[in-house]
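Can you give me the bound-state structure? Components:
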Amino acid sequence: MSMPADQHYDAATANAAMLSSTRPATWRWYLLALLLGAVVACGLYAFSYQVMTGMVVTGKNRPVMWGFYITNFVFWVGLSHSGTMVSAILRLSQANWRRPILRGAEAMTVFSIMIGGLFPLIHLGRNWTFYYMIPYPSQYGLWPNFRSPLLWDMMAITTYIIGSSLFLYLGLLPDLAVARDRAGGWRRLFLSVLAMGWRGTAQQWQTFGRASTLMACLIIPVAVSVHSIVAWDFAVTLVPGWHSTIFPPYFVIGAITSGVAAVITLMIIIRKAFHLEAFLQPLHFDNLAKLLLVVTMLWSYFYFAEVFTTWYGHQPIEWEVFRFMSDKYRLLLLIMLFGNTVVPISCLLWRRVRRSIPALLVITLLINVAMFIERFLIIVPSLSHKNMPFMWGSYTPSLVESTVMAAAFSGFALLYMLFAKFFPIVAITDVREETEALRGTAVRGRARLTTLVDEE
Amino acid sequence: MSRQARFYQWGMVIDLDRCTGCGACVVACQAENNVALVEKQRFAEGRDMHWLRIERYWEGEFPHVRARFLPMLCQHCGDAPCEPVCPVYASYHNDEGLNGQVYNRCVGTRYCGNNCPYAVRVFNFLNPDWPQPLPDQLNPDVTVRSRGVMEKCTFCIQRIRRGKETAKSEKRLVRDGEIQPACAQTCPPGAIVFGNLADPDSHVSRLARSPRRFRLFEDLGTDPSVIYLKGGGHEHAG
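Here's the bound-state model for the whole set.
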């Protein structure tokens, strides 16, 4: 599947093709890196300006105390569900088409959760005291408040950063060894240290297989809990529009929607940038798009269920929030429904669309714009019209907040570029495992085994 | 300390039938508690720092309109929504029913501000700035808050402290009416009464048993310590 059947199969050529992203950088790579670096620098400047001046430089006010930063936080945590979904769940369900994309998705998980995790810190009024939230033995004799969802957040996100990094690293091990054997100079040293003496013995492969399956099982509950906890930041409060029992599963589905959409977008970019057309074939996009179709349907169902109960119950304050949202942010609401429900469901039903890469690029980008809007529409209108009508307000993001957000996107792209430059972005081991399985032989250490279909 | 063994349970009664909406309490609160001055533009942006505000609602159509005033301050909820959400215990409950705020513990997540249904918590978006000679009139008993922290009405905790210390040095309990927050002290028609709800004979306790009593958003289960009085009688006839 990964290599066309008529092509002469050669392991070395396959390895080289899959490692194409690590070839020496071109001037275009440097230019792009410089550009992204410049945006990140702007964001750092904007952030330091905020630290020096105060939160007055943001658009926040009373009653809207949370704005773009928390929207970004939820958005990035949502994106981080891609890797877990694609790698862990598809690994356990033995979907072979996941193989060429799993590395890209796992890396995306790690980088987006790192960036997402920064936003609650950026958003603090006194950023320099963030460590008060860490449970450490101090002279105050004071622990953080474990009843606070923000503390659950911190625990969950730290766990997810560690877990997903380990997951990414574990999968990388054999590939690092491949890259190591082909590299020279400082890269060789660097990769040798990271590969931790991988030789590819039968015992190593066996341990590796077991560990991978175990990690896949362990990371799924972490991923579900992370986004449930993010949802509880809102659901456990008394704020009308937030206080809703449906939020945790709804947020998990939303996260998977934006995660899968982002994986497809990223795969399209990687395929183009590193000429991986042989490995990322229409079939892979077709399968991912089917998954996307299912999750957008689920998302639409959850959204409908949430709004329907609000409308039917018609509690004055709950309905006021919805009325305000659909009035003041009508355009955003329509874009969200269009991008998350109308377009994906009507287009992805068709096989031709699912296999058309330009169409998928447009649809997946639209979905993530819509998902960003969704988070914004959850956070801001509820806070604008809380219980006290005298204190109703609204919110517009400031230039500082938008700059920090732009820097987050650039920073993510930059991290990704660097990662692809130094590490194999296609999971060589996983792809070859399957190719060889389909050819009837599997290599386990030095042994060549005859197989029908061989999974871990 | 168990609920029964408490000597003090601070509470407030605000008689809306007496309130004229003059705003003297707002000024008194600002002077007593070193509440930051805010420019007109910042005020319009929603960065005002009032611990106590007079909410004005209009009733009826012109020319038959009436203004309704609602003095709004921290309700010192018995089951306060702001407290459990604070990750660092900057917002906490003390055993006299006060909802405390530790400024130098606050990291500024503003979560408490979101979760307060009364929207009485204010955030220092800027460092406070008093033009000369106003710094000379700052109350030495009250911390000046820096930017990045939350603050709100404390029921003039500095006055409560002082009253308790005086009483302790004289080996007695605080007498009814001995402690008055700035707003209650200033209120010309005497609409605001502060005192000890744990003492059934205190002025505030007697008023709190009035049939005109109600508490704001009682259905949310926040158990506020501020009780409003409002008659449903003659003023609706005209």
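A couple of observations. Residues 62-125+133-392 of chain A form a domain with the Formate dehydrogenase/DMSO reductase fold fold (CATH 1.20.1630.10). Residues 1-8 of chain A have pLDDT under 50 and may be disordered.
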